[in-house]
Write a structure and sequence with these properties.
Layout: E1 6-14, H1 21-24, H2 44-47, E2 70-73, H3 85-93, E3 97-100, H4 105-113, E4 117-120, H5 123-133, E5 140-144, E6 149-151, E7 157-159, H6 164-172, H7 176-181, H8 184-197
Length: 201
Amino acid sequence: MEKFTTLTGVAAPLPVVNVDTDMIIPKQYLKTIKRTGLGEGLFAERRFKEDGSEDPDFVLNKPAWRNASILIAGDNFGCGSSREHAPWALMDYGIKCVIAPSFGDIFFNNSFKNGMLLIRLPQDKIDLLMDDASRGANATLTIDLENQTITGPDGGTIEFEVDPFRKHCLLNGLDDIGLTLEKGETITGFEKSVEAERPWL
């Protein structure tokens, strides 16, 4: 998993509450178990019209936010079903951080396990960041995970909280497999001791 240390990028404003995982990645894109290619289906029912053309009114289709790597969202982002394809689609599109007042629990856990940073902030701070994001590509945010700060285009900073274990995993690029491999020597030692004590196994 790629390490997350600092991120400087354009933030797209999505002031919509209760964005569920079906809105993030519609069910027709769930046939694959690959993590790549799902960015094409991100917010498909909002990004595209019925004829397949882009909806120019959707934020990620507007020139200023096409290359956004941060999403400022409304309350309860990622609610709904437990599909892991939702964080996969966001990551594949290029979104590496979502900032919102609250998140669906399963989506929240899945996102961290896939290397995406989710930040919970009170609504007044979300309003400030939403205003920053509305300025488009001329205004970027910098997220510093080590120091737990968000720096706006005017130089002002907002501090955020993050679980220490999740922070450790992101900073070191550790998913569940990586965490297991960190204990490789201990696991090998245990296997050798079991083999010596119970050679019939």
